[in-house]
Amino acid sequence: MQILELHHIRLTARGRVLLDGFSLTLERGARCTLTGPSGSGKSTLLRCILGFTEPAAGEIRIFGAPLSPRTVWPLRRKMAWVPQEPELGNGTALEAIIRPLRYRANRGLGARGRRIRELAAHFGLPEDVLGTPVTKLSGGEKQRVALIAALVLDRPLLLLDEASSALDPDSRAVVAAHLRSLEKTAIVSVAHDPDRFPLGGRVVELPVTRQPDGTR
Q1: Contact present, 190 and 161 (Cβ < 8 Å)
Q2: What is the pLDDT of residue 212?
Q3: pLDDT (tens digit, 9 = 90+) per residue, 123-134?
Q4: What pLDDT, on a 0 to 100 scale, did the predictor assign at position 16?
Q5: Which of 19, 24, 91, 140 is surrounded by the most beta carbons within 10 Å?
Q6: Ramachandran sector of residue 8 (left: φ over 0; alpha: ψ -120 to 50; beta: rest)
Q7: Which pLDDT belongs to residue 40?
Q8: Which residues have C-beta within 8 Å of that of residue 26, sequence separation ≥ 6?
Q9: How far is CA 207 from CA 22, 23, 102, 113, in A?
Q10: Which neighbouring-strand residues pair with 65?
């Protein structure tokens, strides 16, 4: 079964066409990196997959089910998302990671303290970082904390929007290698430069769509 299907997607923003007729399918464990110039619709496409916004035309299916206002909440439980600038809320880094585990949809996932610490160490976060208030974290620390929070949810579809942009080269390489090792997780990643964050799989360059008046 396809985990993600995008069929003939059309995206518009402020009167401009970002994408027109875009299609993509992704199977379990597959990787796809979306790249392209600013304004080509990369982040907007991720927001459509999450159900935060709707495409102007086309269909999105997740595990074969069409994404709609009626299905969006159960389908989001199959996804995890890491934006470029994560909003971690209040409290410490550890509290930001475990907060989603307390939601009703994630019951049964609470006993993951050991994995959280293993991932933190693997991603090069000193143990005392977990006890640090999120307001004191650097950009790279926030991104790694957000990645850990997404990974402990163990969702079959992971969406990353420039999720490594604040990492140093060594940390970026470690995180990318870990993501490549996730055989059962399908990943859609947005990256301006896929070579800096190589996840394997397909690299899809989104075109700059010509506007009705002929401009780009």
Answers
A1: yes
A2: 52
A3: 999 889 999 999
A4: 85
A5: 19
A6: left
A7: 82
A8: 2, 3, 4, 5, 32, 157, 186, 188
A9: 10, 13, 41, 43
A10: 62
Here the contacts of 206-210 (C-beta below 8 Å, separation 24 or greater) are 206/19, 206/22, 206/34, 206/35, 206/36, 206/40, 206/41, 206/42, 206/45, 207/36, 207/40, 208/36, 208/37, 208/39, 208/40, 209/17, 209/18, 209/19, 209/20, 209/40
Residue 64 has phi, psi (to 5 degrees) of: 80, -10
In angstroms, the CA 58 to CA 71 distance is 16
- The tokens describing 187, both together, are 């990943």
Spans of the chain, pLDDT less than 70: 102-113, 208-216
pLDDT at position 113 is 67
- Residue 1 is predicted with a pLDDT of 73
The pLDDT assigned to 15 comes to 82
β-strand partners of 133? 92
Structure tokens at 180: 């490549």
pTM: 0.90
